[in-house]
Amino acid sequence: MESLNDLDKIILNELQLDARISNAELARRVNLSPPATLGRVRRLEETGFIKGYAALLDRQQIGFDLLCFVSVSLQLHEIHQVTGFHQAIQKMPEVLECHHVTGDYDYLLKVVAHNTDDLEDFLVNRLTPIPGVARIHTSLVLRETKATSVVPLR
Description:
Elements: H1 6-17, H2 23-30, H3 34-46, E1 66-74, H4 79-90, E2 95-100, E3 107-113, H5 116-127, E4 133-140
């Protein structure tokens, strides 16, 4: 596995803060020529340090008033149930994240919903019927006090 040097980390930090920065401005900020900067960015993309670029949307502005964390336990941990669960979750656009976790539950989902009716429909008609789902626990987010996609590089 390739490692990051200090200049790579600086470039990644700048791109995390503003992925739309021009190559010329990025080069100026990291004190490198534009062609050398572009080469480093391409290498970071090719080696998988940069997975992609995205526009971060304000979910409430587009009508998703609820943000929830849903904990899910499976009945059995047989491969067909686990695989089936993973496949079903991949098809659910309201599930922003799905993590296999330790503790009282097997999975932690980050879910958006327009309103409580939308959330109820998701829980009752889409999540619960997945074969193998034993129990769910839903927590509604009252206020986001911090939300970032910036990974700290040191």
